[in-house]
Structures are given as C-alpha cells and as structure tokens.
Design goal:
Elements (H helix, E strand, L loop, with lengths): L1 H48 L1 H44 L6 H6 L8 H24 L1 H15 L5 H4 L9
Amino acid sequence: MFAALFKRAEQTVDSAIGDLGNRIVIAIPFLIALGFGATSLTLYLDRIYGSELGTLMVAGAFCLLGFIVALVVRIRRRQAESRQQAVAADSTLASDAPKDELASVNGSPSIFDDETVMAMVTSAAPIVLPAVLRTGMKNWPILLAAAAGLYVVSRPGGTAAEAQPDTSSQTS
C-alpha cells in the first residue's frame, strides 16, 4: 500500500524536477544571448550618443522591460486568483467541508502548502544537502572571499570623498 504511494510521489517529484530542469536548460542560452545583445547595444549606443547617454538609454530599456514583465506577472497572478476563487466557490457549493485554516488566516496559501512542492523538498533534501555541504567544504576559500566581499559592500560608511585625505591644500 505504501509502496504505491511512494512510487507515485517519486514520479511526481521526478516529473517536477525534470520540467524545472528543462525550463532552466532552455532559459540559459536566452539569458546569455540577452547579455551579449545588451553589451552590443550598449557599445553601439555609446558610439552614437556617447558613453553616459548610451549607457543610460540601455538602463532605461531594461527598466521598461522589467516594468512590462512585472505587469504581465501581475495580470497572470490576478487571473490565477480569480480562477482559484471560482473553483473555491464551486467546491464550497458542492460540499460543506471546512476551509483550510492557513488559507483563511493569510488570505492566500503559501507555496509550501502545495503537496507537490513539499514532496519534492522532503525527498530532494537528503540528496542535495550532502552534495551542497561537500561542495562548500571543497570551495571554502571562495565562499569565505564572497562572504568577506558581501560584508565589505554591505558595511555602512562614509563616501569615498570623506575617506580620502584632502591633498588640495598641500603644495610642494
């Protein structure tokens, strides 16, 4: 009895991981192409309009692209919420079962409320965690340097003009 449940959960996790892996493999070349395209567009606009204005134009284009993507995501999220509300209304009329307590408290369910995601996380953690720890132990100098860099960048401090001594008053 439990073997069938485990087999089904394993197939669901394999399917979800395979689908995610396929999407990542498909997206990587497009991201690299986007980087090269942005670089060549920046060089072209720098040549025509100058360094400052060309770079500013590329930054504006990426801001516009970000706003468009955010708008599309927002529209899709609203459509998904309206579909979920319609399904919930239909299921409420069909049965008198009580609602999920977490969904009623938070207003919207968390990603971890989905059984597929939880099955994937709980089955992948024993495999992924040791591999991550092994890789981290092998590359501890890189991780230490990255942590030090993040620490230095995130430190609050004065500006570069405040940190440098004033050399304009000294004459030789």
